[in-house]
Amino acid sequence: MRSTVVRQFRRSRSAVFGLLVVVVFLLTAAVAPWIAPHDPIALGLGQQLKAPSLEYPLGTDELGRDLLSRVLWGARYTLLITIGAVALALLVGTASGIYSGFLGGWSDTLIMRLMDILLAIPGFLLAIAIIAALGVGIVNVIIAVGVHAIPVFARIARGATLSVREQEYVQAARALGSRNSRIMLRHILPNVTPPVLVQTTLQLATAILTASGLSFLGLGTQPPTPEWGAMLSAGRTYITSNPQLAAIPGLAILLVALGFNLMGDGLRDALDPRLRR
């Protein structure tokens, strides 16, 4: 089964391209302290808005800081927020969906109505409201972006659980006296994992756009932290004179979001037998 999925994934050139893009940016974030040519927050007196050169390959920003170094370090902060938010949504949403779908009854009704309330609020507005309540900062952005993605994982996990819980092997485990927690971990979770895994990759693209949007509005990471959304916001002032200040972080956001989407589409096709060629 695993070899079939890998083989099917590799057949999709777009999926492989998306995976390569994501891996490149993850490696960049991991080694940023060692490959960045300058301190990303060090001010350069007399070096403001320099054109690209050997010393500053992408030029400098309005405060004389090396743009290349800030983009490399920005990968760390942007991907940290994105992965942290999706991990939060994945854990809470999947656990809630499995618990709700397996046990049913009043707990199912309560959890699903709560998810309906969260889904009724536009995701970006919900994130802004959470930031307004908690304050700005990296941790609060992770919470805000993660909470707005929880209902998606909860509904997918619940739907998969409802289709599995009536299977004969689950009923046999119940008849043998297995605890509900053991059944959910050993029999329900493995069957819920494929659709949740696909949603995770797709949700990463949405999360990076939401997190960057919050930083663009000044509600995410605060100066002088090099984060792509905040860099894009600062660079828009110089879009005519120094377009690279906004274009480069914007292009980085676009490439990562595209990579996650292409990888998610390929993974969905590989895991779904109906879509295999």
Q: What is this structure, in a nutshell?
A:
By secondary structure, the chain is mostly helical. 74% of the residues lie in helices and 0% in strands.
Task: Break the fold down into its secondary structure elements and pairings.
Elements: H1 2-11, H2 13-35, H3 67-103, H4 105-120, H5 123-134, H6 138-164, H7 168-175, H8 180-216, H9 228-235, H10 244-271
Helix pairs in contact: 1-10, 2-3, 2-10, 3-4, 3-6, 3-8, 3-10, 4-6, 5-6, 6-8, 7-8, 8-9, 8-10, 9-10
Notable characteristics:
elongated; 277 residues; MetI-like fold; single chain; mainly alpha
Description of the structure:
This protein has 277 residues and is mostly helical. The protein has a single domain (2-275), classed as MetI-like (MetI-like fold, Orthogonal Bundle), CATH 1.10.3720. Helices cover 74% and strands 0% of the residues. The protein has 10 helices and no strands. The protein has helices spanning 2-11, 13-35, 67-103, 105-120, 123-134, 138-164, 168-175, 180-216, 228-235, 244-271. Helix 8 (180-216) runs antiparallel to helix 10 (244-271). It is elongated and about 75 Å long. It starts with a helix and ends in a 6-residue tail after the last helix.
| CATH level-3 fold name | MetI-like fold
Proportion in helices:
over 70%
Radius of gyration from CA coordinates:
22 Å
Mean model confidence by pLDDT = 89
Largest sheet: none
Number of helices: 10
The total tally of domains equals 1
The 3D shape can be described as elongated
Which spans of ≥5 residues are poorly predicted at pLDDT below 50? none
| Relative strand content | under 5%
Number of strands: 0
Task: Name the CATH superfamily classification.
Answer: MetI-like
Span between termini: 15 Å
- Decide which structural class fits the backbone: mainly alpha
